[in-house]
Amino acid sequence: MAKRSKRYQQIAEGISKERRYTLDEALQLVRERATAKFDEAVDVAIKLGIDPRQTDQRVRGTVVLPHGTGKVPRVAVFAQGEAAAEAQEAGADVVGAEDLIERIEQGWDEFDILVATPDMMSKVGRLGRKLGPRMPNRKAGTVTRDVAQTVRELKAGKVQYRNDAGGVVHACIGRASFPPEELRENFVTLLSAILKARPPAAKGSYIRRISLSSTMGPGLPLDVSDALAAVGKS
């Protein structure tokens, strides 16, 4: 295991890996210990009771966080004609068709999210191996006829979530500078969306573990029952 820096050891002091913190306790501790010289992100990791090897148990979707993430994503759109003009007007950073596909094939990757109109997907499909999970996807809402609305939502705080190979969903719910109530609302909104996205094929306990952390800070294990109760109270 890599040796932790002195700074990390200091901010991790007093954090128990055995204890399960309430949501409010964890948010307070994360904010207090985010002492880097930049506004650290507040991240959540949710371990799900799914078998990610099974296509019918994968969890993926989008949700609009009420207070955004504190970062405006760079959105690139595959579109032509009127749809391209609408995406540009809505605030897309880059809009293109074959030219955009070729730029990405040549290594350009200065984007955070890709959006595409359905008619472009037959051409965009050739990027599948290169882009992997970054490909536009209907389930994630990034293959759409209404590219303008999608671009506006993404710029306003709509985030994508999906499980990784270990069945864990990682997402940002804001910045350490956010008031705790805003981080709480964002967390509850995200967890609610993931609960609604539970695959019918998933068996047993669905939300197994949850942890919160800042960019440079230690993870704080949450009391899952308390987190679920927060969703019920929202």
Brief overview:
This protein is an alpha/beta fold and 234 residues long. Helices cover 34% and strands 20% of the residues.
Question: Could you characterize the architecture of this molecule?
Answer:
The structure is a single chain. The chain is α/β, with parallel strands linked by helices. The protein folds into 2 domains: 18-69 and 158-233, Ribulose 1,5 Bisphosphate Carboxylase/Oxygenase (2-Layer Sandwich); 75-156, Rossmann fold, CATH 3.40.50. The protein contains 9 helices and 9 strands. The protein has helices at residues 6-12, 23-32, 81-90, 98-105, 121-124, 128-131, 147-156, 180-196, 224-233, and strands spanning 41-48, 60-64, 75-78, 94-96, 113-116, 158-162, 168-175, 207-214, 220-221. The strands form 3 sheets. Strands 7-1-8-9 form a 4-stranded antiparallel beta sheet, with helices on one face. The longest helix is centred in the C-terminal third of the chain and has 17 residues, at 180-196.
